[in-house]
Amino acid sequence: MPCAGNDGSTGSVIFVSVLYDEEDYAYRAETYLLLPFYRTTTVIYENVKKWGRSMMKQWQVAKRILPLLAVFSLLLSACGREDLSVMKPQGPVAQGQYDLMKLSIAIMIVVLIIVFAIAAYVLIRFRRRAGQTEMPEQVEGNFKLEVIWTAIPLLLVIVLAVPTVQTIFAQGEDLSNDKNALKVQVTSHQYWWEFTYPQYDVTTAQDLIIPTGTKIAFELKTADVLHSFWVPSLAGKMDTNPDGTLNKFSFSAPNEGVYRGKCAELCGRSHAFMEFKVKAVSQESFDRWVNQMKAPAVLPEDTQLAEKFKTNCLSCHAVGDQGGPVAPNLTGIGGKESVAGILLNSREGQEEGSPVLDNMKEWLHDPQSVKPGNTMPNPKDLGLTDEEIDGIAEYLANYKLDYE
Length: 404
Hints:
Elements: E1 2-4, E2 10-21, E3 26-35, E4 40-47, H1 49-76, H2 92-125, H3 143-171, E5 182-189, E6 192-197, E7 202-205, E8 207-211, E9 216-222, E10 227-230, E11 238-240, E12 247-251, E13 257-263, E14 275-281, H4 283-293, H5 303-312, E15 318-319, E16 322-323, E17 338-339, E18 343-344, H6 356-365, H7 367-370, H8 386-397
Parallel strand pairs: 5-9, 8-14
Antiparallel strand pairs: 1-2, 2-3, 3-4, 5-6, 6-7, 9-12, 10-11, 10-13, 13-14, 15-16, 17-18
Helix pairs in contact: 2-3, 6-8
């Protein structure tokens, strides 16, 4: 390989030696060049001890950090919200999925224990002993052993596959023709959820109200991009596909309460803020809610503010029997669990959340700061003053449905 010397002469590499320095725990390279023009041999010595020492120091640091990372990972794995955990099932569907998780983990633990036990036995029982020079007996091609370690994994797969297939088919049952099931059509938008009850001709948004103990037959679609409907404590995920495919599944909530749901598919800038709530109530409360949702709209008492609200807001939103279907239905929004799906409203007995009026003002004064990329225009761009925005916020914060 041609090479140039310091004085411009050329030569060829004739020998390269890479040595390991045990004293300094580092590699060094020696390159010998023959420079024919001056008939001298120049030895170029490249010392990479600094690099070696640096690598050793990094490994020493890593050995100290890795155990700490393992401990913190174990501790932090217990952190999080109970209503967003599949480990706290609150319905039969989620319970069935959780049971499958426990079964698969139990099988894996048993396999792990057996494999490690066999490995430990082999390492101890068949270790090379002092003075032993002969080759141990070889067992490759042992038909009996090969049958055993092929049959055992097959048996484990069958044990896991049978309940898995049974659960998947049972939970994937289409209940759209079941007269006893409540039908709900779910439409995902960037970045909010729309819920339509075709049996009652009612549409709402963000809060899915369902009666306890009733199977809910869902039909899911999207108005824009791919989203995924997920209520961790009640059921697994189900996509809403932009190709027009309708996905169907069902779940139920045996107990009254509020269950948090999220979009589980990256769908844009505010994907993390695309939350919704499932509120399970008694059948009597659900019937009252349906009746109040179908009642005539209640508009602001101030006639000028009411006109502004109708002109600027009801062209997209709806309240009661008035308004459009383009944006979330605002009927009873003051009594919902959140504003814009992400600003939690404070409730008695809850530590988190802010007053609904504060959340409403925060949302209306600057929607983009709450949910970047959402399609709601800034009310100020529509010509509304701060006083009018505050008036609409107060009206909506007090617009509640009394059904519980």
